[in-house]
Amino acid sequence: MDLRNIAIIAHVDHGKTTLVDELLKQSGIYRENEATQERAMDSNDLERERGITIFAKPTSVVWNNTRINIVDTPGHADFGGEVERILSMVDGVVLLVDAAEGPMPQTKFVTSKALALGLRPIVVVNKVDKPDGEPDRALDECFDLFANLDATDEQLDFPTMYASGRSGWADMELDGPRKDLSALFDLILEHVPAPKQIAEQAKPFTMLATTLGGDPFLGRLLTGRVETGTMKAGQQIKAMSRDGTLIENFRVTKILAFRGLEQTAIETAEAGDIVSIAGMSKATVADTLADVSVSEAIPAQPIDPPTITVTFGINDSPLAGRDGKKVQSRVIRDRLMKEAESNVAIKVSDTPGGEAFEVAGRGELQMGVLIENMRREGFELSISRPQVLLREENGQKMEPIEEVTIDVDDEYSGAVIEKLTGVRRGELTEMKSAGGGKTRIIAHVPARGLIGYHGEFLTDTRGTGVINRVFHDWAPFKGPIPGRRAGVLISMENGQSVSYAIFNLEDRGKFFIGAQEDVYQGMIIGEHNRENDLEVNPLKGKKLTNVRASGTDEAVRLTTPMKLSLEEAIAYIDNDELVEVTPNNIRLRKRYLDPNERKRMSKVAS
């Protein structure tokens, strides 16, 4: 059977996973009466809850006696590492662009990686049936983007299609029949080159591992594309690191191929096919799996370095151990090392004390997803404020700069520009009308200045603005950037909060807690109206007397507390504060610097 390997790349929410849904349906992998669900490729719980793709996942369909391996990729910049390593497995990409929004920051990022590998994209202008869609403008912007990224003449001569992934059609012309996706299938077969199967099959087996997974019965699973030769189940092969050093010899216990949404065991894998292999105990991502006679490793595509770091520590608050079962630093370290092994965009290192770990990654969302997964697994953690990674070049301190693209109502554009270019030391590079009463603002802002900005941005734009960011370049350090302006309200007692006390303190600021919630000394329970921190007593009850007066027995009505999400909490805290994360709670607290004070507070709480 003929073979094609493609990846679908796009900015977040431009319709990749929805288009894959329709490709699966129209290729005939489902029975007529089979129940299907939306975004079938988003199989992870967090992906379905958040409505975004986090992990790159392959699938395959058959069209006109040709097997097409399709890789659905994440669209958010924080998960760009997933896209970078997956592009080495494919021979072509389908670039999806929203007809209304046009190319966005992540579109630029993934396209630059695809063009650098020599891939010739197919551009699909999606959502052309939207009322505010401007497909011609989006197509012109795509051509300008390709030219700015130094695309070759071949790459600039890209085929284009107009589509609606939700409605399940794609046509070469904007006013086409709009029936189905057969034109897209045919274009993929015609435009994407087939893997060099026949010429490569005579060579010894080699394969570059691009993703690491696990199975409760099979153990470690490494997925990648077979570069040369063939491999059979039961064959003895070896794993090599990037420099050709032998890692281990092992026997292939199982070969799994992607068939629709499932993985099916096969006896032989041939050059060009994307498969998963079981049987190894040490080999991991970016290692070469090869026949025992091969001595040279396949060069792995370098991954862009991390830009932020977060400290993961044990939960040492007085309420530690009440929710989670995994609280020891040893268990936390093992889990982080396991994550770093499968996620090439994350780096983990020990801190001098040994009780905390520095985790470096691409952004706050990537860190938030890792922490959310860990808390669902029963971990308790204390998380520090994200810090930007700096580096030195020729004796000069350099910091990462991010390209920020903002779509905002015209009336709020002034407030956004003032915040970005003033306080946060950004530089405005472009400002234009986006149609529909909206303005598009593009600015280059230090990554430090964007930590904690998202919540402020939503407040400034009354929740109507959309912000997207992607790593742009390194630039000389731009000087100090002020952090959070407001102070916090800190509990000075241990126990359960009382509604009467909170009611009388509401004029001091906004609260993060309600009545009858566990609090402890040093826990942050609200935001102060002023810039200084204030210690308050949320346990102070009402004094009871025999005297009755007008208004004495009125019911206490509390303002609904602000409940911060995990990402909001991490972005909110200051350098001397921590986020306490447990399976059931997210709390903020001040750091405890004195071990004796920590022991004393633990005794009081118990």
UniProtKB/TrEMBL annotation:
Gene3D superfamilies: 3.30.70.240, bipa protein, Elongation Factor G (Translational Gtpase), domain 3, P-loop containing nucleotide triphosphate hydrolases, Translation factors
Functional description taken from the UniProt entry: A 50S ribosomal subunit assembly protein with GTPase activity, required for 50S subunit assembly at low temperatures, may also play a role in translation. Binds GTP and analogs. Binds the 70S ribosome between the 30S and 50S subunits, in a similar position as ribosome-bound EF-G; it contacts a number of ribosomal proteins, both rRNAs and the A-site tRNA.
Protein name from the UniProt record: Large ribosomal subunit assembly factor BipA
Subunit structure comment from the entry: Monomer.
Organism name: Paramylibacter ulvae
EC number: 3.6.5.-
Signal peptide: none
SMART domains linked: EFG_C
PANTHER family found in the cross-reference section: TR-TYPE G DOMAIN-CONTAINING PROTEIN, TRANSLATION ELONGATION FACTOR-RELATED
Principal localisation: cytoplasm
Reactions listed under catalytic activity: GTP + H2O = GDP + phosphate + H(+)
Keywords, alphabetical: Cytoplasm, GTP-binding, Hydrolase, Nucleotide-binding, Ribosome biogenesis, RNA-binding, rRNA-binding, tRNA-binding
Taxonomy of the source species: Bacteria, Pseudomonadati, Pseudomonadota, Alphaproteobacteria, Rhodobacterales
